[in-house]
Amino acid sequence: VAAMMFTKSSIVAVLAIASSGVVDSFSPSAPRSLVVNQKNACIGTSSSSCGIKPSKMPQDSSTQLSLFDFLSKEDQTELVTNGVELVEEVPEATEADEAKKAEIIALAIWGVTLSAFILINNSYGPWPLFMKSIPERTFFLSHMIGGMLFGGGIILTTCIERLVAKSNNPDVLQFWFKRVPELDGLIVVPALTISMVSGTGLSIVRYGGLNIAPPHVSAIFWTLIAFLSWWAATDLTTQTTALKAVDQMYESYQNGEEGLETPKVVVDRHVSNVVSCFFVLTLYSFMVLKPGTLFPFPWSPWT
After folding, report:
1. φ and ψ at 29, to 5 degrees?
2. Buried b vs exposed e over 116-130: b needs ≥16 C-beta within 10 Å?
3. How far apart are CA 137 and CA 201, in angstroms?
4. Hey, how many other C-beta atoms are within 10 angstroms of the C-beta on 23?
């Protein structure tokens, strides 16, 4: 196998030299003394009587064709491909992949920080202490705005993405999936942060701390942490894969293909989005019904 690869690589190099015109022929040249004697003998005579043919423009060498005569089309393709691979380096990760990695790292840091903030307040009491001095109405207003943006953003984007996936339109699909990270960064992440921080502040001002707040408050925060884990595991991890599939679909569309269907990875994301919507509905049901405070939790007989 190694000998065969060496032979094919050598043929590629020979073809490159022959096609460039550096070597006109692979036949051995005449000795220098013979050429000089022939020139001296022809001094003063016509070129035709001397037997020297007039010079002609160099013709395309048949060496390249003769080397390919014994190769099949598959071998020729392999030779050309291997020749290109010897020159070109392995392409690095695209800018989109690098940007997505940076986004995931930043979101991971954000999620760990926010979860640590909630867990510290749930385990040890009010932290940081200056939150006790902030008016309750400030926390309340922030909590309402953050909650509406967060819940509304999740439900609205779920509905939009479903309509986009059902459209089978490459232009619409590409436009949407290039905007999803921007929507996450401008709406979902800030709204969720505001909602959780202001909610913690409300529990500190109203009840003295998250660790001594009524049971439904702790249930809300645990549901938020569960949602955060689900969203990071099922939504963020499929955004890049979905965008690449949509880009391939768009490229096929540009090449004139018809009857294209939405990639499966895009369609499957609907399940993740619907579960996220159920998390939102669970959060608001806890806020309104206050289980454990107005009435016991359904599972309280078994705890």
Report:
1. -80, 160
2. ebbebbbeeebeeee
3. 10
4. 12
Residue 303 confidence (pLDDT)? 53
Determine contact, residues 217/207, Cβ cutoff 8 Å. Answer: yes
Burial 167-195 (b: 16+ CB within 10 A, else e): eebbeebbebbeebbeebeebbbebbbbb
Highest-scoring range by mean pLDDT, 45-54, 169-178, 284-293: 169-178
50 token code pair = 């001397």
pLDDT band at 96 (very low <50, low <70, confident <90, very high): low
| pTM of this prediction exceeds 0.70 | no
- Cα–Cα distance, 246 to 264 (Å, whole number): 10
Centre a 10 Å sphere on the Cβ of residue 139 and count the other Cβ atoms it contains: 21
Contact 125, 211 (CB under 8 A): yes
| Residues 157/183, Cβ–Cβ less than 8 Å | yes
Alpha helices in the chain (DSSP H): 2-20, 32-41, 47-50, 63-68, 73-87, 95-124, 136-167, 170-183, 189-207, 215-231, 237-254, 264-289
Q: What residues pair up with 291 in beta bridges, in sequence order?
A: 295
CA 247/CA 251 separation, integer angstroms = 6
3-state secondary structure of 295: strand
Residue with tokens 């307040």: 121
